[in-house]
Design brief:
The strands form four sheets. Strands 8, 9, 10, 11, 14, 15, 16, 17 and 18 form a nine-stranded mixed sheet that branches. A six-stranded mixed sheet has the order 1-4-3-6-7-19. Helices cover about 20% and strands about 30% of the residues. Strand 6 and strand 7 form a beta hairpin. The protein has two domains: about 90 residues, Structural Genomics Hypothetical 15.5 Kd Protein In mrcA-pckA Intergenic Region, Chain A (Roll), CATH 3.10.290.10; about 170 residues, Pseudouridine synthase, CATH 3.30.2350.10. It is of the alpha+beta class. About 30% of the residues are buried. Helix 1 crosses helix 2 and helix 1 crosses helix 3.
């Protein structure tokens, strides 16, 4: 049986009506994946527009219905500019939308949105505090998390016990973890109190519990861990735990420039229809594979005050 497909529209409408925007662009902007990844999903017949299998090059307009892995969205007008928040995550919160164990999530404290959704740029585990970026700009979120963007993350770590210069050099040079080699691209002493010593460390990847596992490889325990920087964005020193602040539109556009994507020009977005199943969401919320990358200098524009 032949598949029904939605006919691509690659031309501007002669009658002056809205020609629409490319399907993969609208889906990427809504946080459903990268454009390249969505191209593959569309080509594999995993996306429907108004009940028909979509094809590469298809465009969508306000009012169209998109189905992707059993979940439905309606194409809606973009009612407001994109927003990006800096959130100071406290202990005990998880970076998920819901939790079967009933633990609090970071999303419970965020402002409610009608035609967009908050996307966490990377994750922090339940015992890690500090800077968490959240944005409605799905394209920006995916680009910042992708290894090709070379975005570094800086953490303040409290270590129980002394750390020799030799151990610090080992962690700079790299050690073998169970999921491959890893290292701190920078490590600096930051004072001590009694038997507790503070360090600032930088990693270029977002692997699960990477900072803790690097220290554990040298038989050292992290008693406190706080992210203080993500790329060019610093945690403001006056932002209390559990609170958030918006970055300016100018800084949002600078973030896009930092990861080499142009300023936003789209005027439509996706609005979820009904309740999306967790099993289906897990399929399109796949995270990209991490690759080792080198450090590069980056502009810092949000706050230059480091705190621990």
């Amino acid at each position: 049986m032949n598949k029904q497909t939605s006919k691509p529209d690659n031309t501007t409408a002669d009658d002056g009506s809205d020609p629409g925007e490319r399907l993969q662009k609208v889906m990427a902007n809504a946080g459903l994946g990268s454009r390249r990844g969505l191209d593959k999903e569309i080509d594999a017949g995993k996306v429907q527009v108004n009940g028909k299998i979509a094809v590469l090059g298809a465009k969508v307009k306000v009012g169209d219905k998109i189905t992707f892995y059993e979940n439905d969205w309606e194409v809606a007008a973009q009612s407001a500019p994109e927003r990006t928040l800096i959130y100071n995550k406290p202990l005990g919160e998880i970076t998920s939308r819901s939790d079967p164990q009933g633990r609090p999530t970071v999303f419970e404290r965020l402002p409610k949105l009608e035609t967009a959704r908050w996307i966490a740029v990377g994750r922090l585990d339940i015992n890690t505090t500090g800077l968490l970026l959240l944005t409605t700009d799905g394209e920006l979120a995916h680009k910042m998390m992708h290894p090709s963007s070379n975005i570094d993350r800086e953490y303040a770590c409290r270590i129980h016990g002394e750390v020799s210069d030799e151990v610090m050099q080992k962690l700079r040079d790299g050690v073998e973890l169970d999921d491959g080699p890893a290292r701190f691209t920078d490590i600096q002493r930051a004072g001590h109190s009694g038997e507790n010593f503070w360090f600032h460390v930088v990693v270029m990847e977002g692997r699960n519990r990477e900072v803790r596992r690097l220290w554990a490889s040298q038989d050292l325990e992290v008693s406190r861990l706080k992210r203080v920087r993500y790329g060019p964005v610093f945690l403001p020193s006056k932002l209390k735990r559990g609170m958030f602040t918006d970055i300016t539109l100018r800084d949002h556009n600078l973030l896009r420039e930092e990861v080499k994507i142009p300023a936003r020009a789209h005027s439509i977005t996706l609005k979820p229809i009904g309740t999306h199943s967790q099993a289906a969401k897990a399929k399109w919320q796949k995270r990209p594979q991490k690759k080792k990358s080198s450090q590069r200098p980056q502009r810092r524009f949000v706050s230059r005050n480091k705190s621990r």
